Amino acid sequence: MSTRIIKDLIPKTELAEIAKEQFGDLVKAVVDVEQGIMAIGGELHADEEAVLLEQGSRQEDLWGINFYPNKQEEEWLEFDSMINVRPSQDNRSRGVENNETREKIKQVIKKLVAL
Q1: By C-alpha distance, which of 104, 111, 18, 108 is closest to 68?
Q2: Are 105 and 91 in contact (CB under 8 A)?
Q3: Rounded to an integer, what distance in angstroms lies between the CA atom of residue 108 and that of residue 32?
C-alpha cells in the first residue's frame, strides 16, 4: 500500500482494513499537528514523514503514532515511533513526552477518524 495523506474524515473501519493488509492489527501514521493532517499506509513512520515533508510539513510538527483499530477507543492509539526521538525538542524517547503535543495529536485524530 502506498502512503496516503488524510485531510478529510476516514472511517475507523477503513483503518481496520488497512491494518489487515499491512501489519495485521495496526496502522502506522504520522500526524502534522499544525496542519491537522496525517499520513498513513507507509511501511515505516519515516516513509510517511518523508511524504509529509515533501508536501510542505515542518519536521517539528510531525509525530509518529500507531492505531490499533480493533481495540476500544481508550486503548487504540499508541504514541511510539523512532521519528519521535528529538532531543532538540526535549523528546528523548520514542513516545510523545509533552502532554500538550499529545493533546494536539488527539485533536487531529478526533477530526480525521470517524469512530
Answers
A1: 18
A2: no
A3: 8
Contact 105, 111 (CB under 8 A): no
Q: Any idea which residue has 500500500 for its cell?
A: 1
Assess contact for 40 and 84: CB atoms under 8 A.
no
Q: What is the pTM of this model?
A: 0.96
Tell me the torsion sign for CA atoms 14, 17, 19, 25: positive
Grid cell of 94 as nine digits: 520514542
User: Which residues touch 59 (CB under 8 Å, ≥6 apart)?
Assistant: 49, 53
Residues 6+ apart with CB under 8 A from 94: 80, 81, 82, 84, 85
Whether the Cβ atoms of residue 38 and residue 112 lie closer than 8 Å to each other: yes
Tens of pLDDT, residue by residue over 7-38, are 999 999 999 999 999 999 999 999 999 999 99
